[in-house]
Amino acid sequence: MYVVIIGGGQVGSYMADLLKKNKIDFVVVDSVRANIEKLAKKFGDEHVCLGDGTDPNILASVKIETADVVTCVTGRDEINLVASTIAKFEFQCSRVVARVNNPSNAWLFNIGMGVDAAINEADIIGHIVVEEMSMKNFMTLMKLSKGDHSIIQLVVNDESEAAGKKIKDLKLPKSALLIAIYHGEDFVVPNGETTIFPGDRIMLFSSEAIYQELVRIFSGSGRQE
Questions:
Q1: Which residue from 47, 53, 63, 161 has the highest number of Cβ atoms inside 10 Å of its Cβ?
Q2: What CA–CA distance (Å, rounded) separates 205 from 153?
Q3: Among candidates 74, 202, 97, which has minimal Cα distance to 144?
Q4: What global pTM score does this model have?
Q5: Which CATH number fits the domain 2-120, given the four candidates 3.30.420.40, 3.40.50.720, 3.10.105.10, 3.40.50.300?
Q6: Where in the chain is the domain with CATH 3.40.50.720?
Q7: Which architecture does CATH list for 135-219?
């Protein structure tokens, strides 16, 4: 797997560190020499590129067209949006993820502009605050820019109907997709034979229409008023 990160600030640096720990190949593109020098010392010259992330020549130099994922995570929305558009429509990159810094610009970050998934930090934090106040053991991790689907996390309670059962025995909504299960510190890629235990953190891809049903199945309760 190969990932191109446009933006070498705190977010880009953190992503690079995470990718390295998971043995995923990557390159960070940034126009600030100090950022690149710092990243080069940490990750090696082969993982950095000094240049403008909106310059097609720079993007071509890092073979962006071969990237499995392109992430545009600079601190400027205009750069993230332009870089996303170029990556998607000039280089036909299959998956483009962009950071939204100013919530008022969120509407621009859509598939028509080349963004497959927009990470709106303010929106995510706002949802976490509201949902932590109103829904027990429920958290939205990422809202996708197209449609009403999100990646969510639920914590399994002792009293839930899922506790102690295999996934194949649960009557899950057809539109829900289990992505991962965290059992303590262990990460599990789920299948039908995987057993759910109390305290497990379940990551799912789902639509807003079935949130309540998923909460009922895994947390044993609905919305807490």
A1: 53
A2: 9
A3: 97
A4: 0.60
A5: 3.40.50.720
A6: 2-120
A7: 2-Layer Sandwich (3.30)
Q: Show the tokens assigned to 50.
A: 């000094």
- In the chain, residues under CATH classification 3.30.70.1450 are 135-219
Q: Chunked in runs of 10, what are the mean pLDDT values of the chain (225 residues)?
A: 93 90 93 94 95 96 95 94 96 92 88 87 59 49 61 82 88 81 80 88 80 81 42
What DSSP assignment string belongs to the chain?
A: -EEEEE--SHHHHHHHHHHHHTT-EEEEEES-HHHHHHHHHHH-GGGEEES-TT-HHHHHHTTGGG-SEEEE--S-HHHHHHHHHHHHHTS--S-EEEEESSGGGGGG-SGGGT-SEEEEHHHHHHHHHHHHHHSTTEEEEEE-SSSSEEEEEEE--TTSTTTT-BGGGS---TT-EEEEEEETTEEE---TTPBP-TT-EEEEEEEGGGHHHHHHHHHS-----
